[in-house]
Write a structure and sequence with these properties.
Elements: H1 2-18, H2 21-31, H3 37-67, H4 71-82, H5 90-109, E1 115-117, E2 124-126, H6 140-148, H7 173-182, H8 184-195, H9 197-200, H10 202-218, H11 224-245, H12 251-264, H13 267-271, H14 275-303, H15 309-338, H16 351-362, H17 364-371
Length: 372
C-alpha cells in the first residue's frame, strides 16, 4: 500500500543512508593509514558494487518469472487479489531479496571491533574496551614495555610507542559546525563536491531514467538488469587495478580526469537509440567512475581532521542529496516529453534529444573543474 511505501522512502531509507556510507568511510579511515588508504577505499568501492552486480541479473530473473507465468497461475493470482488476498509480485520479491541481504549485513556488523591503525607504526591499536589508559592516554601494555625496556608487549605484538585512546572531538552542535565551516580545507573540499555534482547525477539517471527508457524503446523484456550489471562488474575489475597503479597520483588529478570520461558517456545515447549504445554508455560511465569516484572518498578522508570526518561527510553530502530531488522530477519530465510510455499513430519518440539534454548538463562538471 502507499503509506508504508512513503514511510520507507521518506523516513527509513534516508535514515539508513545517514547511518550507512558515511559511517563506513569513517571506519575505513580508522582501519587504514596514509600508505594504504587509497587502495582500501578502492576495495570498499568494489565490495559495494558486488551487491549491484548480483542485483542486476536477479531483477531480470524475477521480472521474467512474474511476466511469463502461465495463464493458469495468472488467473489464480488475479482471483486471489480480487478477494483481498496477498500475493507475491515482482516488486515484492525484489524488496524481499533486499531485506534478506540487509539482515545478513546486520549480523556481520556485530563482528566489527573498535580498533585504530597507528599512522606511525602501522599497527592495530585496541580501543578502550581492550585496555586501560592513564590520564595521559598511555596504555597498560605500553607502560609495562617502557619499564622492561621495550621488546614484545604482553599480547605478543611489537611495541611502537604510546598507545593512544581515540576520543572524538566534542563540543556543541553550533561549535562543531562553526569550526568546520571556518576551516579552509573544508571549503576546498566543498567546492570539489559541488563541481562534481552534475556528473554524479548521471548515476541517478542510470538508476532511474535508463531502465524506463529501455523498456519503452525496446519492450518489456529489454535486458535492463544485465545492462545495468555491466557497471558493477567493471568497477569490481577496474577499481583495484586503477587505484593500485595510481596511488601516488594526487586525488584531485584523478577526479578531474575521471569526470571527463564519465561525462562523455551520455553522448552515446544521444547519437543512437540501440542496445549497443546503452552498453557503451554504461561501459564508459563505469571506466570514469573507477577513475574518480573512489579517489573522492580518499580525498575526503585525507583533508578532514581526525574526529571531524563525520561532520565533513555530512555537510559535503547535503548538496548531493538536495540535488537528487530535482533530478527525479527532471527525469520524469524528460521521459514524459521525449520518451513517453504510449505514442500515437504517426508519432515517434525523441529519446536522443532527452539524452542530449542530460549530456549537456553533465559535461558542465568537468569543464568547470578545468576552469577553476
Amino acid at each position: 500500500s502507499k503509506p508504508p511505501l512513503l514511510f520507507c522512502i521518506l523516513f527509513t531509507l534516508p535514515l539508513a543512508n545517514c547511518l550507512g556510507i558515511p559511517v563506513l568511510t569513517i571506519g575505513l579511515r580508522r582501519y587504514t593509514n596514509e600508505s594504504n588508504r587509497g587502495f582500501a577505499f578502492g576495495l570498499f568501492y568494489v565490495v559495494m558494487n558486488v551487491g549491484a552486480l548480483i542485483a542486476g541479473p536477479l531483477v531480470d530473473r524475477l521480472t521474467y518469472f512474474y511476466n511469463h507465468r502461465d495463464d493458469e497461475d495468472d488467473a489464480g493470482e488475479m482471483q486471489h487479489q480480487s478477494t483481498g488476498g496477498w500475493a507475491m509480485t515482482t516488486n515484492r520479491a525484489i524488496v524481499l531479496s533486499g531485506v534478506v541481504a540487509n539482515v545478513l549485513a546486520v549480523l556481520v556488523a556485530f563482528t566489527v571491533r573498535e580498533i585504530k591503525v597507528d599512522a606511525d607504526e602501522r599497527e592495530l591499536v585496541p580501543s578502550s574496551a581492550d585496555e586501560d589508559y592513564d590520564d595521559e592516554g598511555v596504555g597498560a601494555s605500553s607502560r609495562s614495555n617502557a619499564t622492561s625496556g621495550g621488546g614484545e608487549s604482553t599480547t605478543g605484538r611489537r611495541s611502537g610507542g604510546p598507545v593512544r585512546k581515540f576520543e572524538p572531538l566534542k563540543g556543541s552542535t553550533y561549535r562543531i559546525l562553526a569550526d568546520t565551516l571556518a576551516q579552509p580545507s573544508f571549503r576546498r573540499f566543498l567546492v570539489v563536491c559541488l563541481l562534481t555534482l552534475n556528473v554524479r547525477m548521471v548515476f541517478r539517471h542510470l538508476d532511474g531514467t535508463l531502465p524506463k527508457y529501455m523498456v519503452r524503446e525496446f519492450g518489456p523484456d529489454a535486458p535492463k538488469g544485465r545492462v545495468y550489471s555491466i557497471n558493477p562488474a567493471l568497477i569490481i575489475v577496474l577499481v583495484p587495478i586503477i587505484t593500485a597503479s595510481t596511488s601516488a597520483v594526487d586525488p584531485l588529478v584523478m577526479i578531474h580526469n575521471g569526470t571527463y570520461v564519465s561525462a562523455i558517456s551520455v553522448f552515446f545515447l544521444a547519437c543512437s537509440t540501440s542496445i549497443a549504445a546503452c552498453v557503451l554508455f554504461v561501459v564508459t560511465l563505469s571506466v570514469g567512475e573507477a577513475i574518480w569516484s573512489p579517489r573522492l572518498y580518499d580525498y575526503a578522508m585525507s583533508v578532514s581532521p581526525e574526529g571531524r570526518e563525520g561532520t565533513y561527510m555530512a555537510l559535503s553530502s547535503a548538496p548531493l542529496f538536495l540535488a537528487k530531488l530535482p533530478v527525479g522530477f527532471v527525469s520524469g519530465l524528460l521521459l514524459q516529453r521525449y520518451c513517453p510510455e504510449e505514442v500515437g499513430d504517426g508519432e515517434v519518440r525523441h529519446s536522443r534529444t532527452m539524452w542530449l539534454i542530460i549530456g549537456l548538463t553533465t559535461v558542465v562538471s568537468p569543464i568547470m573543474t578545468t576552469v577553476l
